[in-house]
Design a protein that fits this description.
Its EC number is 4.1.1.23. InterPro entries: Aldolase_TIM, OMPdecase_AS, OMPdecase_type-2, OMPdeCOase_dom, RibuloseP-bd_barrel. Helix 2 links the parallel strand 1 and strand 2. This protein has a single domain, classed as Aldolase class I (TIM Barrel, Alpha-Beta Barrel). Helix 2 packs across helix 12, helix 5 runs parallel beside helix 6 and helix 9 runs parallel beside helix 10. It is built from twelve helices and ten strands. The protein has an eight-stranded parallel beta sheet with strand order 2-1-10-9-8-5-4-3. It has a two-stranded antiparallel ribbon with strand order 6-7. The protein binds the ligand O=c1ccn([C@@H]2O[C@H](COP(=O)(O)O)[C@@H](O)[C@H]2O)c(=O)[nH]1. Ligand LLZGTKA7 binds next to strand 10.
Length: 276
Amino acid sequence: MSFISALKRRWQDADSLVCVGLDPEPAKFPAKFSSDPDAVFAFCRDIADATAPYVCAFKPQIAHFAALAVEDALQRLIAHLHAAHPGIPVILDSKRGDIGSTAQHYATEAFDRYRADAVTANPYLGRDSLQPFLDRADRGVVILCRTSNPGAGDLQDLLVQDDDGVARPLYQHVAQKVAREWNGHGNCALVVGATWPAQLREVRAIVGSDVPFLVPGVGAQGGDVAAVVTNAKTADGTGLIISSSRAVLYASTGADYAEAAAQAARTLRDEINRHR
Ligand SMILES: O=c1ccn([C@@H]2O[C@H](COP(=O)(O)O)[C@@H](O)[C@H]2O)c(=O)[nH]1
């Protein structure tokens, strides 16, 4: 099943738009992991198993594994997610982007090595840099549009003339490219941060209802859940993958870490659903 089909099914089956981000930081792990040589895998597995009933997707962030030189733990974690939670799509957050010949290797890394259902990608190098990802029709390509960080506007807000001579911010061009040219296989999604409610509304107006949004920035970054849902949901009350990492992962650093993570994911799901 394609990424988009699996996502749509999961939105319905779990009645959830929540994505749990898997961003391991061993310094924040509960004490029981201090002498575990496989702590990164074990902690992420426990969090995923506890939160699975409440999510539409998982999003491991590759830098958190690579910095610790535990890419093998990421590989085993994604294998575990597929085996233990079939039907929950896995989005590898690696924000790749390079010339086409190298991008081909990044696509192989994400989809064949890690077996991710979707990958985040940076559009800055243009269409050919995304093509190896776009060509994998069964997998998702989640393209950075308006990111959640405070400096997002430094480049993404720069005004650029479109083909009709109208000046638009760069992030709107990305949205237009996806809607009009890059989504031929129907496998694109966009990253739009929860910290930018006005831009969420603008981008939804540009792309319509066929392009899901991955929305990081609720929880630790302070994004307003109600504004996200109100401004960016589609007519059927879906269209969103609202991602939270630290606020779920480290809801408790005590022995109850898994239960606390499950509670945080459930609470977020319920808050989102009140506004759908
Ligand atoms: O615009 C973006 C794109 C990606 N991210 C990633 O999402 C999580 C956010 O973590 P929180 O702990 O929920 O703040 C993290 O992996 C980022 O790399 C983003 O925040 N904004």
